[in-house]
Request: fold
Amino acid sequence: MTERNKAALTAANAAIARGDIEGFLAHCAEDIVWTTVGENTLTGKEAVRRWTAKHYATPPSFSVDDLVAERDFVIALGEIDVPGDGGQAIRNAYCDVWRFREGKMIELRAFVIAS
Reply:
């Protein structure tokens, strides 16, 4: 199961990197809960769709340095560049803790720190 979940997250990340929001959402459960720690929580696939359409209108540039899987969890560590107010890229370090249910991403706890 851990390898299947890692493969699903890898495919979902590839979809986001190419701007394919629906391809990403295909890996999410309808009742996904997406929490960016210290910021906000999105509940449900439609809320995630709206957020990604706005914040990832230009696909983010990111790297995954490590993927660790245990039971129903996959942890991704890496860096992500997001556009700042002036359009310049802002580099952030991140740790995403994904929980899976029946092969779908059901929960995200995203820890993002400006580098």
About this structure: The mean pLDDT is 94. The radius of gyration is 13 Å. The longest strand covers residues 89-101.
